[in-house]
Amino acid sequence: MRMTPEGYGTGDVRVPRLVGLMAADARESARARGLVLDAPGRPDFPHAVVDYVVRQYPQPGTPVPRHSVVHVWLDFGEGEGGGGVREPRGPLPPPGGLRRELEEPGAQPSLVALSSS
User: Fold this and answer.
1) Which stretches of 1-117 are DSSP H helices?
2) Residues in contact with 53: Cβ distance below 8 Å, sequence separation at least 6, in sequence order
3) With left for phi above 0 and alpha for psi between -120 and 50, is residue 31 left, alpha or beta?
4) Chunked in runs of 10, what are the mean pLDDT values of the chain (117 residues)?
5) DSSP 76-106
6) Would you tell me which of 13, 74, 79, 114 could form a disulfide with 51, CB atoms 3.0–4.6 Å apart?
7) Distance of alpha carbon 59 from alpha carbon 57, whole angstroms
8) Are 27 and 52 in contact (CB under 8 A)?
């Protein structure tokens, strides 16, 4: 391989930044530079579209030979599975602090702390 003043071969390309891209866009960006993407543990990667790249190896800017494999790790996009529902769902608890409970009908209310179990 012939070396250039920058220190890498003339057939080498720099790895693009793929983190933050959707899977389909990451594949296209890598393909345009002559690179191949692989997602370890994701046999469905060739069909993944809206999953986002959250990590990659080698790092962006690294010179690699054309047709090298770049490994990417994916996570679901915004609002897609994985973490469950993050906002409270109704019915909401009544406003105020401690709940009051009557021990017997007609008795004076006593304060009852809510347990954490």
Assistant:
1) 23-32
2) 18, 19, 20, 21, 22, 23, 26, 72, 73, 74
3) alpha
4) 49 94 95 95 88 95 96 76 57 61 59 55
5) --TTSSSS---S--SSPPPSSSSEEE-SSTT
6) 74
7) 5
8) no
